Amino acid sequence: MTLTTILCPLDFSAASVALVAYAAALAVGTGAELRLLYVQEPAMPLAVGVEAELSVHRAAAQAAGANRVSTNMLKGEAAPEIVAEARRQHADLIVIGAHGQTGLSRFLMGNTAEVVVRTAPCPTLLVRE
């Protein structure tokens, strides 16, 4: 499988650092472009410092050897926006964090990663913390 574009959605949780390192390693190994994405959801308080946070993750990916790294921020519901961005960018792979919610909490709260896996136009790699 040839990878040219890897999409890596971030939520800026503690697990995001490891997620970016994993996605960067895949980008380095395949020569793919790494696209870091943050989606500001309407129900969430306005995120402050998103550009700075994305810059920190971009720098970390570049320090890991990924030489083609871009960032983007969108507004809307996370899962549909991630899937739409994967389509727009013709992503070959989505690398997304899985927080391990199960049972009732996943049913009540939803699970972005689960929706992305079910609806993505390309393979999706779930990375656990």
Automatic annotation (TrEMBL):
Residues 4-128 form the UspA domain. InterPro entries: Rossmann-like_a/b/a_fold, Universal_stress_UspA, UspA. It comes from the Bacteria. The chain crosses the membrane at residues 12-34. SUPFAM superfamilies: Adenine nucleotide alpha hydrolases-like (SSF52402). Keywords: Membrane, Transmembrane, Transmembrane helix. Belongs to the universal stress protein A family. This is Universal stress protein. It comes from Hymenobacter ginkgonis.
